Amino acid sequence: MLTPGKKVEVTEFFGYFCPHCYALDSTLEAWVKKQGDKISFTRLHTSYLGKTLPQQRMYFTLEAMGLGVEMHKKIFDAIHQQNLSLNDEKSTLEFVVKQGIDQQKYLEASRSFTVRTKAVRTAQLESFYGLSGVPSIIVDGRYLTSPQIAGRKLPGSLPEADYVAALMPVLDALVSKAADERANKEK
């Protein structure tokens, strides 16, 4: 959690393998941009019980190389539009090299202390917050929400877009609440 008076921290736990994360991504991106300097936004790729470690390693490696933002949508689209699995080290390496990323630099970054530490820290945070699925969003280190949580009151089985839409006002309210609580602590 950040100190009072600073930006409200918003952390998304996601996975490239997850169709729900893919459905949320563009709406969440727009929401983050709309928040401006009110929030500090971080993404953490889950390992999904160790089953998606190559995707997690790819995410943290590209982030460490300063290519995370540039490659984020390309990876999601490759998996969900082009049906690439990217479920092992070989396929993730082939993919990033095809995107013009230097293979040796990528491999060096993927084996770095920074990448290993982020993976371990993500697992610790998943356990700490008791996450059982993705996407999950933590606001200010205290409030957990997701499209599924926000959409629980919606009637029947609705399109995924309705759950995503239900999440945005919840995020707005949680960020506002966290900011107000910080302001009150400073008084």
Description:
The structure is a single chain. With 187 residues, this protein is α+β, with helices and mostly antiparallel strands. It folds into two domains: 102 residues, Glutaredoxin (3-Layer(aba) Sandwich); 81 residues, Glutaredoxin. 58% of the residues lie in helices and 11% in strands. It has a four-stranded mixed β-sheet, with helices on both faces. A hairpin with a 3-residue loop joins strand 3 and strand 4. The radius of gyration is 17 Å and the shape is globular. 30% of the residues are buried. It comes from Undibacterium terreum. GO terms for molecular function: oxidoreductase activity. This is Thiol:disulfide interchange protein DsbA. Belongs to the thioredoxin family. DsbA subfamily.
Quick structural gist:
It is built from eight helices and four strands, in the order βαβαααααββαα. It has 187 residues and is α+β, with helices and mostly antiparallel strands.
